[in-house]
Amino acid sequence: MSTSVYSGYSRATTLGGFPRKLSLTPKSSMNIHIKNHYQSKIYTTGSEVSGHVTICPQNDTRFDILQIVLLGTSKTRLDAVNIPQATCHTFLKLVMPIPESSYPVPRIFEAGMTYTIPFTFIIPATLTLNACGHQVANDSVREEHMRLPPTIGSWEKDDFAPDMNRIQYTIKARVYKDEIASGETTKVMEAGREIRVLPATPENAPLSITKHDDLYTMTKSKNLRKTILSPKSGKVTITATQPGAAMLSPDGHTITSTTVPLELQFEPASGDARPPKVTGISSKVTAVTYYSAGGINNYPNLKDWQRAFATEGRGSYSGTTSVPTGAIGDIRWSRHLTTQARRDSGYGSETLSSDSDHLVPKKKTIAAPILHTARLRVPVQLPVHKKTFVPTFHSCIASRVYVLWLTVTLASGGATANVTLGVPLQVGVEPSSTFPEAVGLPPSFEEVEELDADEYLCPRVFGVPTVDFTRTAALPGYADLEVRRRTVAAH
Length: 491
Known about the structure:
Elements: E1 2-3, E2 9-13, E3 30-34, E4 42-43, E5 48-55, E6 61-62, E7 65-78, E8 85-95, E9 108-109, E10 115-122, H1 139-145, E11 165-178, E12 185-197, E13 219-225, E14 232-240, E15 246-248, E16 258-268, E17 277-292, H2 309-312, E18 314-323, E19 334-337, H3 339-343, E20 350-354, E21 359-363, E22 370-380, E23 393-394, E24 398-412, E25 415-425, E26 427-429, H4 445-457, H5 478-490
């Protein structure tokens, strides 16, 4: 099987939807049959897609080339002010080699005859280097673009996909004929069959979230009051840590649960203020789909994606659904002395303020030197029974990320307060048991160089060649030593 990947982008203008080529060819008498295939079947990395193409022409049809390919295409559409702009990126093209013995002689499909051509494809673990030919910010982005994206927009259940983005995998069979007069190649038959692909996706390292990343809110503070009119009793700060990835099964029917660690910190305004009580935690997840008219050179979920919308033709679409959370159990607060309290022993003492005429004692107002902290873990289970969750991915013109929103309800006295955090949540796909190494990537050039260096620097054990004396106890001659040298060199 030979593999070729198109790295270019084709663009067309249309009044709605994605562009389509108009064909004047008659209704195809070609069909594609996939072995053990059914409508809801999902293919993953390492899955075999095999079957055969049948051709039953109604008239004698002369041809020159028969092509069977597995295509992976990503399509985006931007509804611009003047004319909508559509982009199509073919990131995968696997060509099935057809031996010459499979062709009829002469190359004419005769009317009333049935021709069968078998095919076999394997869903690859990665794309080739030609799949991503545009400039990117770093090697990490390039590595993400070399992974297969999942099917987008063709699932039975809602997958949060907008109409402006589609990712499809299709098996296509085409018959071409060379026109002798014009020298052009004409397509005389074509058939296609779409399949759904959920590639194996490993868990990535946690994101480095900064204050410039507007999509996420990892920490948030809020002042608490016992009543609306009463002074504040203190300030609570909640900080979240990115949870581990929720891993889908290869068929997408089940998903592992994940747990979000939360750290609560309460700074009382006075020594008698008590920490609030956590009365409940609710959660929801937002799927954000990014799409672009050109190659994306960075991670769109970091920094401000919308800033370059007008100049570079970018867009995003969000869909949200509720997520059940498990029981969090009892929360125990711990008391600590603040760092300032350890250094300053003059809490509540009086100081003197100098004036031009006299010294006036001034009361120093310092917050309570006590700090209350608590930790809890929030279990989360994504609802795969009502929504389709595809893995987190970043490709050349489209990306999908997830944001988990946690709302913590606090009770302080007779008042309640809500603190909402937005945490990045990665969705991955476990490798199939029949192809466990599919999730890995080929070794990089740096890894290969390190292996070569380790092999070169590996210590060798050299031994002094032993010389056996004969029974006469005569010293060995030069000929004996020469034979021994050749023997050692051979080893």
